[in-house]
């Protein structure tokens, strides 16, 4: 959940290009880079980090404009975020990583693999953006002309407290037909709470305008998917996702012919939080069963010259856990 208060235990900071970036670094072994989604922060991974850290070096940053990282007037495009992650890994002395991206972070993960294939070993997409146009209308509203003014009022102390209390109460609603609509409302409450900071609202608004319009998501990696033909890729989704439709998971065929897709039942937009043990197992199985991608400049040049001539290959497997 977003946390823009005092620095939490274990959070490190590094200043790159004059901008302070917050991150958590823990564990030892092959490197995993965990990228959170829109308006969230590194704490979305809190349930899985201790499990993964037993076998991996886990890096979980607050993306620029989120959490404890700076929120400047800056580049909030996918390319800008990919560059930032490249620079962070360089400063930390990590040459190659398996990138795990949730929601908007999935778009950053795909962009990172496209821009820096020589530094990307694998990609896991979790309820990822960039696989289709549809997205919840609530995110589209962030670019509406009156959104900033409305948020200034709705995040006033008394009003904000009532809103977040109500959202958290609804999130505790038990099983039943409404559960798929309420399970992620505690995350929504944390996001609303973080929007009391004008700088956070500014950053999120600019980010949304870079990737979404009134018709939905405007950024896709499908036209460049052929460049990652040797990149191991896995996709994890929650069957009851109300933010990005689970049917987008099948579009992974356009990104990687041998991608494996797992849809978790009784899960929404945050499958890593709903089922942390299962998610950690899926990630470990993915890493341990695939060889890291090896960048070949000559092959990359050949692919660019040829372009994408073939239709997408069907998925290797689609599983339900």
Automatic annotation (TrEMBL):
The keyword Hydrolase applies. InterPro entries: AB_hydrolase_1, AB_hydrolase_fold, AB_hydrolase_sf. Residues 30-276 form the AB hydrolase-1 domain. GO terms for molecular function: hydrolase activity. Keywords: Hydrolase. Signal peptide: none annotated. It holds the Pfam family Abhydrolase_1. One of its GO terms (cellular component) is membrane. PANTHER family: HYDROLASE, PUTATIVE (AFU_ORTHOLOGUE AFUA_2G14860)-RELATED, MONOACYLGLYCEROL LIPASE. This is Alpha/beta fold hydrolase. It comes from Nocardioides immobilis.
């Amino acid at each position: 959940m977003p946390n823009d208060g005092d620095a939490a235990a274990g959070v490190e900071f590094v200043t790159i290009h004059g901008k302070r970036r917050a991150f958590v670094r823990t564990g030892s072994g092959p490197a995993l880079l965990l990228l959170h989604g829109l308006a969230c922060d590194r704490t979305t991974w809190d349930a899985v980090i201790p499990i993964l850290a037993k076998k991996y070096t886990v890096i979980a940053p607050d993306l620029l404009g989120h959490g404890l990282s700076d929120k400047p007037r800056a580049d909030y495009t996918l390319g800008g975020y990919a560059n930032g992650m490249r620079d962070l890994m360089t400063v930390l002395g990590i040459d190659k990583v398996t990138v795990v991206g949730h929601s908007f972070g999935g778009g950053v993960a795909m962009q990172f693999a496209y821009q820096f294939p020589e530094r990307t070993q694998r990609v896991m997409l979790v309820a990822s953006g960039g696989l289709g146009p549809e997205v919840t209308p609530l995110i589209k509203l962030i670019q509406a002309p009156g959104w900033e003014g409305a948020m200034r009022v709705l995040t006033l102390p008394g009003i904000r407290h009532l809103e977040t209390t109500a959202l958290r109460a609804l999130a505790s609603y038990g099983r039943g037909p409404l559960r798929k609509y309420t399970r992620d409302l505690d995350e929504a409450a944390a996001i609303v709470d973080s929007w009391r900071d004008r700088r956070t609202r500014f950053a999120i608004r600019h980010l949304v305008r870079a990737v979404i319009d009134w018709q939905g998501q405007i950024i896709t990696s499908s036209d460049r998917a052929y460049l990652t033909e040797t990149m191991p890729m896995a996709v994890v989704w929650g069957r009851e996702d109300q933010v990005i439709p689970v049917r987008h998971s099948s579009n992974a065929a356009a990104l990687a012919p041998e991608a494996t897709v797992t849809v978790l039942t009784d899960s929404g937009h945050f499958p890593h939080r709903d089922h942390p043990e299962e998610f950690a197992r899926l990630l470990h199985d993915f890493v341990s069963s695939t060889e890291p991608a090896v960048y070949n400049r000559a092959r990359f040049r050949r692919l660019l010259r040829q372009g994408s001539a073939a239709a997408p290959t069907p998925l290797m497997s689609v599983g339900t856990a």
